[in-house]
Amino acid sequence: MVIYMARNKQFVPSVHQQRLSLIKLPHWAVLFYAAAAAILIPWTVYLSMTLPTRQITHHWDIVWEGFDCLVIITLALTAYFIAKKSIWVMLSASSLGTCLIIDSWFDVLISKRGIDFIHSVLLAFFIELPVAILSWYLAIMTAYQCAKIIKNHDHI
Description:
By secondary structure, the chain is mainly alpha-helical. It has 5 helices and no strands.
């Protein structure tokens, strides 16, 4: 799509044209991603107070807090771009899906046996993986709609 825009200078979108009103994203998605970002803030604070500062490596707590902050940022950006009907939702949603897969992977693999492991598996399968799939779906759906708009523009 970027190559197409570069070759056909008449269609390079301005900042205002990036808000494609033809893109149909679910209205509930704004609330969902904004709420998820808001919910993760106290969770990250809780982790900063309860995670051990050392677990084979120094600054173990900072590693996880920093990664959770990245997830919060990508959740918030995804909500913002959906609300603005911006094509940038493709990047934020796909990044979010990837971050959630990484988070669930490490949570499950490095958790202690017992309740910590069960907790990590439940979070992965019932929250992180479904939200990752949903995020990738939104990114793909937006890319498809943008391609459709470009294709329709070729016939004008």
